[in-house]
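Structure ticket #2291
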Amino acid sequence: MISKLHIQNYAIINELEIQFESGLNIITGETGAGKSILMGALNLILGQRADSTVLQDTQKKCVIEGSFKLKESELLKLFFTDNDLDYENEIVIRREINANGKSRSFINDTPVNLSQVKQLGIHLVDLHQQFDTLEINSENFQREVLDALAENKSHLLKLKQQFENYTTVKHQLHELKAAQETANKELDYNKFLFSELEELALKENELELIDAELKLLNNAESIKMQLSAVYGVLTQTDQPIVNQLKSLNNKLKTLNDFHPEISLLSQRLNSSLIEIQDIADELERIEGNVKYDGERIAVINDRLSAGYKLLKKHGLTTTEQLLQLLQDLQKKLDGYADISSSIVKLEIQEKEIYDDCIKTASLISKNRAKQIDAFTKNVNQLLAQVGMPNARIKVQLTPSALNVYGTDTIDFLFDANKNNKFEPLGKVASGGELSRLMLSIKSLVAKKLSLPTLIFDEIDTGISGEAAKQVGIIMKELSQAHQLIAITHQAQIAARATTHYFVYKEIVGDKIATGVRVLNQDERITAIAKMLSGEKPTAAALENAKEMMLN
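Resolution: structure written out below.
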């Protein structure tokens, strides 16, 4: 509930503070005294946009503070947790508006944005003004009313979880199908690329190796001549190097006994002889293996041509890169098969979750349908009670696509004159009719629908007498479990007040300012009597006022 409202430098209000109580808080006063200005100030701390025109004194900022006592609420705790705010049993919302039109909002002195204030405000205050048709025309509100009566809360929570799962799987399926569509466009091309590489069947470093082999084959005759010439010098000339080394080594050996180091030199020369002989043997072997092979050259040229063509095509430079590309293409081709398999699995999963959603949604729809007759009957009775005997409401439940709230579209239709022409509320109901209709509906669902503090701004427009009395009775009953704040011009409603506030204008300095005070018992009698008979109430009006308050 709202416990205190402090307003400073707003419209014609210089500074005032109102302490609200539980039960039915009634606000009365002269037209233009500033009653609706109080509601405007309250709207500002609940997130309504503002500009500098609301400042009474443009040299100072406007400050509005509202103190709220909170009941235990998981939704409120969740809000505070999600927004990294400290949850307390009493909170203060403050709005500051500067002369340049910029404003700041605070929750318990922590800066917040307007969106956060609006979200919190939904849990704190239900403000219904005379021409505010948005809420009752909202499908969300109409659905919440029917679901509160049908006690669908647990089913809706279950459906919410199921629908979120369904939405997630559906999104995954959509992405997979989009990926498959893209993949299908690439599939044939990737298959062709893979086939080209697979058909060539390259081995590791093959292109580099056969390129070297081709150079050897193309220069075979020259290589053989050079190898043969070197081999000949080493072993086959008139004085081959090998024979000369043997002769030189033999001469050294004859000197071994004459000098100790000659033996070591002889061993080294012998090692060189063995190494050169080995080199000669290797040269002979290589020369014997080097042969010109025209057929092999043709084969290598064809293979190199095919390999170089693929290197150029893919912008690569090595056999290893082509082999890696082959592996990558294989993974892509395997991935296409995996996508198809995953799509089949997700389609099965999607259908299972959808069927579960429909099962829960059907139960919700069934519960809603069961409440319609009793709901319309009770509302229509209350409408007659509050002075609208010819008005009727009708609830239309039509099938819709599955969503988080079920498979129903809910419409409250209205017939103001018993002509059987039911139309949407916003088209046919006046502001006063909507206010009384809202009061009738809220009085039915207040215990089941978690309504915050209820505020009605001139709900009594267009009624008087017995209808006003009945509105007062309904509001009094509703205030037993909820805090109600109502601006009224009707004595029958004001007489039901738990606390009665009087709004007045006074001259402060050279300006008109708004003031508010709580009336005592005698002042209430006088104020109600004035509402009945005018500024100078008669004795009969005073007695009537006393009787109305006693009853």
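Closing remark: The longest strand covers residues 392-403.
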